[in-house]
Fold this sequence. Notes:
Blueprint: E1 2-3, H1 11-23, E2 28-31, H2 41-52, E3 70-72, E4 83-86, E5 98-105, E6 113-117, H3 118-125, H4 131-140, E7 143-147, E8 150-154, E9 157-158, E10 163-164, H5 176-186, E11 194-196, E12 203-207, E13 211-215, E14 224-230
Amino acid sequence: MSLTGEGTMPPEEIGHLIAEQFAEGVPYVHLRDVPFTRLEAAEQTMYIRRASEMIGELSLSSGDPTSDVWRLDTVTSPSASRIPYHTDNPFYKLPERFIGFWNLKSSMEGGENVLLTVDNLLEQLGCLPDGNELIDELETHQVTFAHDLSEAVHPILDTRQEVIRYDRRYADAQSVQLADRFTQILESGRLRGHVIKLAEGDVLFFDNYRLLHARESYTDLGRVSLRVRIEASENANDR
């Protein structure tokens, strides 16, 4: 869902608006012209934190374990290559529920976010040869996702709950064949997600359980965004 005209709204109203949309079942919210870009760095962080806390409890970033607001730029995210479809942290027993990007500066060309919701994924896979068989495997095969000291075992897809948890990089060796087949289809161009090019002052929040997200490659290295993750429960250590 995309909304415009948020330039005069205080952070609490921004966060409340996003929370309301998620409560109604919307898988992602895209806001334009949010006024945080006009603030100094410390005020930006405060604005983002105040808005995001209306959605839920913020998680400390693995990239910056001292902060719950992480700056993504050429230092913290140096690769300009495409980031394939994935969900964040499938190796946690309870991954963060919502992910937010507060955009400060876009690349001149490329860098779009691509969102593929579970219902859209199922619809498109069902139209491919052997697509329904793949859906069955994704729902029945137990995959171990592991990273550092965190490990979780679960199927990639739950069609009943419309939940997906997946990142090819963290799948166990016994699941390589299935993971490679799934990633090959995701990255083949046969499945179409919703493409969003964030402008300065845009905010994108999405449900980390209900969609896969990717990022297109980009050319110039000036893009900057601030990321937050929202915990799935009141217990931030329940992973």
